[in-house]
């Protein structure tokens, strides 16, 4: 697994979850957002400072977040971050957590053999958002989540599967320089286990192929067994695992 591949995918994901404020400092992306998607407000430490320069870089990041009234968070990807960063953050009292799996698949492998029964639109509808929020929402003000979606400036797809009762499963994809990232997959509890999520994924793959994206990627929590099995059956394999460091 090359450093450039992992960094490139994580930076594509950052563009698919655009922060409200971004400061780029010698390769590091310092991001702050008011969305519930807290990972969109983490540091992407993709520069290559010498170890002796890490303390100053970390302090600079901490000052950026303190200026916005927020704790610093770092995305830590083995092989894609500066050597010694994880240990340096641990030494400053940062706690580790939120492990994730970065996975990819050839779009042709994810494509269905039959035309999926899914609706794909280029922007979210109220019904799409409501279905997503029913699974992933916090119950608070939905405004920041809507604002995040509106900030995406890459070609996007919003897929949904419906029954007579309405939308039961959704997902979105963002095309970016030959890749399509999959995000926001959500199935209402009453509809799970009936293939709706696979239909959403198939619809997003069809859209990705139409966009000329030859490969797809996604992030999934390692302990989410149902999602892991869905993506594995669709042809996704793990590229690497990463986690976060949180300022106490």
List keywords for this structure.
single chain, 248 residues, alpha+beta, Aminopeptidase, 2 domains, 8-stranded mixed sheet, 3-stranded antiparallel sheet, 8 helices, globular
Brief account:
The chain is an alpha+beta fold and 248 residues long.
What does this molecule look like?
By secondary structure, the protein is an alpha+beta fold. The chain has two domains: 3-100, no CATH class; 104-241, 3-Layer(aba) Sandwich (Aminopeptidase), CATH 3.40.630. 34% of the residues lie in helices and 30% in strands. The chain contains eight helices and eleven strands. The protein has helices spanning 3-16, 54-67, 85-91, 107-110, 126-136, 143-151, 196-210, 225-234, and strands at 21-25, 28-32, 44-45, 73-76, 95-106, 119-121, 156-163, 166-176, 179-187, 215-220, 237-246. The strands form two sheets. The protein has an eight-stranded mixed beta sheet with strand order 4-11-5-10-9-8-7-6, with helices on both faces. A three-stranded antiparallel beta sheet has the order 1-2-3, with helices on one face. A hairpin with a 2-residue loop joins strand 1 (21-25) and strand 2. The longest helix is centred in the last third of the chain and has 15 residues, at 196-210. It is globular and about 60 Å long. The two termini are 31 Å apart. The mean pLDDT is 95.
């Amino acid at each position: 697994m090359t450093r450039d591949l992992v960094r490139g995918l994580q930076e594509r994901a950052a563009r698919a979850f655009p922060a409200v404020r971004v400061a780029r400092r010698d390769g590091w992306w310092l991001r702050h957002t008011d969305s519930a998607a807290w990972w969109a407000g983490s540091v992407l430490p993709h520069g290559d400072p010498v170890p002796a320069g890490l303390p100053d870089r970390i302090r600079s990041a901490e000052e950026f977040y303190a200026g916005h009234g927020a704790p610093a968070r770092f995305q830590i990807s083995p092989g894609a971050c500066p050597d010694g960063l994880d240990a340096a953050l641990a030494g400053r009292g940062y706690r580790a957590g939120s492990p994730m799996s970065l996975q990819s698949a050839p779009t042709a492998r994810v494509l269905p053999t039959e035309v999926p029964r899914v609706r794909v639109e280029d922007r979210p509808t109220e019904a799409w958002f409501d279905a997503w929020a029913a699974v992933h929402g916090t119950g608070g003000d939905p405004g920041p989540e809507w604002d995040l979606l509106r900030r995406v400036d890459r070609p996007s797809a919003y897929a949904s599967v419906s029954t007579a009762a309405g939308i039961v499963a959704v997902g979105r994809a963002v095309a970016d320089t030959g890749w399509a990232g999959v995000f926001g997959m959500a199935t209402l509890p009453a509809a799970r286990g009936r293939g709706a999520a696979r239909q959403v994924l198939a619809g997003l793959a069809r859209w990705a192929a139409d966009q000329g994206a030859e490969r797809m990627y996604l992030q999934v929590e390692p302990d989410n067994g149902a999602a892991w099995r869905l993506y594995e059956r669709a042809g996704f394999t793990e590229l690497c695992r990463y986690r976060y460091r949180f300022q106490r």
